[in-house]
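Customer ticket, subject: "Can you confirm the structure for Fe2OG dioxygenase domain-containing protein?"

Message body: Hello, I'm evaluating your service for our small team and ran a test protein. I'd like someone to confirm that this is what the system normally returns, since I don't have a reference to compare against.
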Amino acid sequence: MCVVNKMSASSSSSDDNNNEYNSDEAADVPTPSGVACLQINKVLARAEETAGEFTFGGQADMLPVAPGLFVDGKSPFGRKHETLIDENVRKGWQLESGRVEFKNPLWHSGMEKLSTTIANRLGYEGTPLQCVLYKLLVYGEGGHFTKHKDTEKEDGMIATLVLQPPNLHEGGDLVVYRDTTTEYRHDFGKKDATAAYLPHYAVHYADAEHALENVTKGYRLALVYSICLPRTVRQLRRNHCQSLSEEKSIEELGSGALKGIDRARFHALEEASNAVMTDKKLCFYIAQLSHEIEFRDDNIDMVFVRWWSTLESQHL
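Agent reply: Thanks for trying us out. I re-ran your input and got the following:
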């Protein structure tokens, strides 16, 4: 997914929303040029300074020790619109959010402080993100959750918060994957021996692949929250149990679906556009781009670059 301004291009197709660039040489690539493009590149470069973090966590020192909780029922996992139970995929127990109560008033004020910290680190400074409790999870020895992506639990969900109250166990690290080369590991205080005494947390984008490694000893207790945009900034309501990376989610949420560097770049361009005259303002579209290379028997390689707006005639 990328944010692009409305641009003109030569095309053999009459459909403005399905343009195609053809070349007889695979080395030929459409490249923007001109003073305006250079200025835009500078704006985009500055945007990296305000982009949020992909995943982060640490000690939740703003929270008190959690009250005692009771566990009831095996935990399922989601697959599109189905809810299944398969211990080869996930082995653990769950307690629904409606059956969890926090009687310590310091917990609620601490969660407000943690929400502010999360918003700032995700790149949503000044936006009152909401942390909505989804479930309490308990993993015993052998408990795990294989590599997966979260399904949407709440309208406007953009990320997941895993909060671990003090508890003693071994194993059970949360591993978050970024592309095929990078992974982030959250041990929730086990390395510095504070897991049994202090609450810890981890945050990752909801569409980031992640896995919970096997718990090898003891019990791992964790609270899972959906991190959501406030209702005042949600553009449209979306379907539940839908992968946040699906095109339909992007279409319906529009610019609200942007995260990290994409979100920072969009707002940088939007701010720059607002500073110019009306006839010079940029029009923003969410578009899908595909790059295909075709190998032919006549030793001529063909490159096809196609782009079209996923919002058709609508712009952000």
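A couple of notes from the result: The first helix runs from residue 35 to 47. DSSP finds four helices and 19 strands in the chain. Feel free to reply with more questions.
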